[in-house]
């Protein structure tokens, strides 16, 4: 058994018996990790108030490689985002990041970039103007995809290399990006604005968010299809769709 120290984002937790919790973490060095926090549900537990979803914590745990569930011995708060937690809208964007981290299963190798990207994104969701939040989320998703090696082509037709400037391109998740009308008949039609916002986000800028509901819906659908096509999990937009329904 080895003692490990790491930084982690809390993804979620659930009860284990009367007083303990199973906590789902995304760690900087080991990727996804599930730990048991014994006694965490007691009022005077050393874990109390620390293991909230979206918080960043410093953890110490015992690792036994043959075991799927590790034992948490210490958790100290590194960063918590009060702005994110106090607004239902921001919290939903925070949960969209958590859904993505769960979907994009990443083991040790490659965890660190995703960890850093998620942490920077939580900081922005905590403080950015509300009308920028959608672009902040898209940027996270597109940069995370690029890091996994699955970057969608958003500018040129994958078949002929043409760049259309009117509302004439379709997104084909199987092909891996956009096609002109001549080459892509069956894909998802993307308006020029949707494509422009996606391109900006993929370049690392979150200054321009979709200005209309239709653009938001198209962009989300393109990203969702691409994630599903490449086996990167469920829809990260579910928390935002739940928010609209509630
Ligand atoms: Zn073409």
Q: Uncertain segments of ≥5 residues (pLDDT<50)?
A: none
- State the helix count: 7
The overall pLDDT, averaged over residues, is: 91
Summarize the main sheet.
5 strands, mixed, barrel
Q: Domains counted in the coordinates: how many?
A: 2
Strand order of the largest sheet: 1-2-3-5-4
Measured distance between first and last alpha carbons: 46 Å
The string of secondary-structure elements, in order, is EEEEEHHHHEEEHHH
Structural class: alpha+beta
Shape category: elongated
Give me the CATH architecture of the largest domain, please. Answer: Up-down Bundle
Bound molecule types: zinc ion
Strand residue percentage: 15-25%
Question: Could you give me the name of the CATH homologous superfamily of the largest domain?
Answer: Recombination protein O, C-terminal domain
What's the CATH first level of the largest domain?
Answer: Mainly Alpha
CATH fold description of the largest domain: de novo design (two linked rop proteins)
Helix content: 25-40%
* Radius of gyration, CA atoms, in whole angstroms: 20 Å
Would you mind describing this structure in some detail?
This protein starts with a strand and ends with a helix. It is α+β, with helices and mostly antiparallel strands. The chain folds into two domains: 2-80, OB fold (Dihydrolipoamide Acetyltransferase, E2P); 83-245, Up-down Bundle (de novo design (two linked rop proteins)), CATH 1.20.1440. It has a five-stranded mixed barrel. Strands 7-6-8 form a three-stranded antiparallel beta sheet. Helices cover 37% and strands 24% of the residues. β1 and β2 form a beta hairpin. The chain is built from seven helices and eight strands. The chain has helices at residues 82-86, 88-103, 111-127, 133-148, 192-202, 213-229, 238-245, and strands spanning 2-16, 20-27, 31-37, 56-63, 70-79, 169-172, 177-180, 188-190. The mean pLDDT is 91. The site of zinc ion has 8 residues, from β7.
């Amino acid at each position: 058994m080895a003692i490990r120290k790491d930084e982690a984002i809390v993804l979620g937790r659930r009860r284990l018996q009367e007083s303990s919790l199973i906590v789902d973490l995304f760690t900087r060095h080991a990727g996804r990790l599930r730990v048991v926090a014994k006694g965490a549900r007691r009022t005077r537990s050393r874990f109390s108030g620390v293991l909230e979803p979206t918080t960043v914590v410093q953890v110490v745990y015992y690792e036994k490689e043959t075991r799927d569930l590790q034992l948490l011995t210490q958790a100290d708060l590194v960063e918590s985002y009060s702005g994110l937690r106090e607004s239902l809208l921001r919290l939903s964007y925070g949960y969209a990041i958590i859904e993505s981290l769960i979907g994009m299963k990443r083991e040790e190798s490659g965890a660190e970039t995703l960890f850093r990207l998620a942490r920077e994104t939580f900081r922005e969701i905590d403080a950015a103007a509300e009308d920028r939040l959608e672009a902040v989320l898209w940027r996270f998703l597109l940069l995370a995809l690029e890091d996994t090696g699955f970057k969608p082509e958003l500018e040129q037709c994958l078949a002929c290399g043409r760049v259309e400037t009117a509302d004439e391109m379709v997104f084909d998740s199987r092909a891996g990006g956009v096609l002109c009308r001549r080459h892509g008949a069956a894909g998802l039609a993307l308006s020029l604005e949707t494509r422009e916002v996606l391109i900006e986000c993929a370049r690392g800028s979150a200054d321009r968010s979709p200005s209309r509901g239709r653009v938001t819906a198209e962009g989300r659908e393109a990203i969702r299809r691409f994630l599903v096509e490449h086996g990167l999990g469920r829809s990260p937009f579910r928390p935002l769709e739940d928010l609209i329904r509630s």
